[in-house]
Description:
Shape: globular
Helix content: 25-40%
Strand content: 15-25%
Largest sheet: 5 strands, mixed
Distance between the termini: 75 Å
Strand order of the largest sheet: 1-4-8-5-9
CATH superfamily: Zn peptidases
Order of helices and strands: HHHEEEEEEEHEHEH
Low-confidence stretches: none
Amino acid sequence: MASSAEYLAEISEYVESNKNKFIENLKEAVAIESVSSSVQHRPQTINMIHYFADKLKQLGATVEICDIGNQTLPNGESIKYPPVILGNLGNDKAKHTVLVYGHLDVQPAEKEDGWNTEPFVLTLKDEKLYGRGASDDKGPVLGWLHAIEAFQQTKKNVPVNIKFCFEGMEESGSQGLEPLLRERQASFFSDVDFVCISDNYWLSTTKPCLTYGLRGLCYFCIEIECASKDLHSGLFGGSV
């Protein structure tokens, strides 16, 4: 039996030898302008979902494209939300199950915003790759798929079952996602042991990190009953 070092060395060697192919995959993904806040880009955002669904199927995952309904725009118009991908790879009862979350939409980007390169053209510069979504979040999602490919192609056993939840509205508040999560809580998500939110940053180019907590948000509505008449802030400021 190979040692852990030998095991990982084979996988690393596969990744290194397929680096150009993996970069090309990222280039293709970056080129799809999946700007979720833009009505004009909604078709491309939906195309982005199907692009990744096909990638998962190529790895042997079972994939469900979940319709999450329509978005009502401020002008009253209704358009389809990008669907959500629910995928599953492996069903070994002896293994733990990890849920991988990622998002496939991006924020708007124009060269005029201050980019030194075209945002939707992956560009290599000073040994770094630049492109909208390269790190947030298409690159990390592709990283999972490339890692799984490396395990499969080197005949290595993936040590966990993996489930996927990929959405296309994260940059717009994950609209439409919560009802789906509640609906599938007792079915698709019922056997999940761990969740990995693959939407984070490294501390530097050589220092990855794991985020184990977020601040979250609390909303309050406060009513204050104060003086019985208006008071001048310059005279009464601090005392009221």
